[in-house]
Amino acid sequence: MSQMQREQLKVAQEKAVLVAVQFPRAVIDLEDRLEELQALARTAGAEVVGLLSQKRGKPVGRTFLGKGKVEELGHLAEMTKATLVIFDHDLTPAQIRNLEGVLSIKVIDRSELILDIFARRATTHAAKLQVEIAQLEYTYPRLRAMWDHLGQVTGGAPVGIGTRGPGEQQLEIDRRLVQKRLSKLQKELDGIHARKEREVLRRNEDHYTVGLVGYTNAGKSSIFNALTTGGAFAHDKLFATLSTRVERWQLSDGNNVLLSDTVGFIRDLPHHLVASFRSTLEETVRCQLLLVVVDVADTTAHEQFEAVLQTLDDIGATKQPRQLVLNKIDRLGHADEMLLWLREHPDAIPVSAENGEGLDRLAEIVRTHSIGSELDLELTMASSDSKAVMFLERRTPVQDRRYGDGTVTMRTTLGARQAQQLLSLSQGVRVGEMPLSELMDTLWPAVAISTDTCRIPVAVRWTAP
Ligand SMILES: Nc1nc2c(ncn2[C@@H]2O[C@H](COP(=O)(O)OP(=O)(O)OP(=O)(O)O)[C@@H](O)[C@H]2O)c(=O)[nH]1
Ligand SMILES: [Mg+2]
User: Fold this and answer.
1) Number of compact structural domains in the chain
2) Which residue's CA is the nearest one to ligand 1's atom 27?
């Protein structure tokens, strides 16, 4: 079934004419729309042979474009020997049917194109499941509508309509079978989802988790590779990454966090795709800190940033603090663009995954988030308490050690989150005569410790008397 679905949508090796329409109040220029559509089409493996654009008040019901424009599209397709037309808009099944009737070549919309890319790139079991569900939900109803039409034009056996043409066998597929398939896939995906959720919960208890999010091609995987031992697939194609990868990010002071890289966002992401990719996004959405990566060298960087914020809201990633990361600064010709960003977002960190610029500063900010508000403290524990001793030696800047009767007292700087980690390793750490566990709320205000409500931690420095 999944093979069949993929074939129906195949865009690879087709010669495509791209169509974009500018409606009033559109936030993105026609040129930028077409450029992104070209990148999507190429990513899907099509050869772009022609572009057609138009500015108009609203779409025409039957064919989306006006009659004259449809004719123009027909000529363009003929001249360029195109085998496929891709619209930068979602079309209704009826519009697709009408357009294909007039043009006599395959027509697909932006969502179908994105689904095709996802289908080609999905490698993990979960990703394949998710794509198939989205295809069954989005594409299947459209194919049914078309089959009736194609059946009429070709006398029952639609041929010569390229890969969208369903073969006879496919015509026989019963809607009920598809429903059955859908519920089987959904059940399997729910199982994966539940397992993921448990994994994420456990991970967040043991580690501080940081997620990279951003528009597709912003450079998330490149940053991920620059900061960890790598292994993420980074490529100048849209949707290079389709599953989530988690690696340890070793910060310079001995602390480490878990960094995750995930699928990129795009404006007007097909609704079904967002829904079915929830389990992939879940790992990132539940991270304790989100690094929102923007490709500042892209002409539509601001619109991309808006689309990312919108998607984060849509998927419910609203609780954790966000850190804006301005990537690809090596590609900026002049500083103006960056200054604009910094004026609006003074806390943003400019970086280049390509040459490493700014990554140290990013690490420093993440460190501040991950260890929480810092306090200078004198901590006493049994010198045989190796877990606590090792933790403090490795993770904190111990300034001096005094040994007493089977005890050691260390002067060091400890963050709120580190204190929690320390407590999970040992209950025998004291501040003076008081157990550290009883002083937590007094030393660090509860708000700085809770992962949900944590905002940028205040750099508290307080020396125990
Ligand atoms: N010049 C320059 N190119 C970069 C930088 N960061 C990433 N790139 C390039 O941008 C392209 C996309 O990078 P990726 O890391 O795959 O982007 P992504 O955000 O993971 O993309 P998806 O997985 O598709 O969402 C690749 O060709 C990278 O080499 C940078 O700082 N400077
Ligand atoms: Mg990626």
Assistant:
1) 3
2) 236
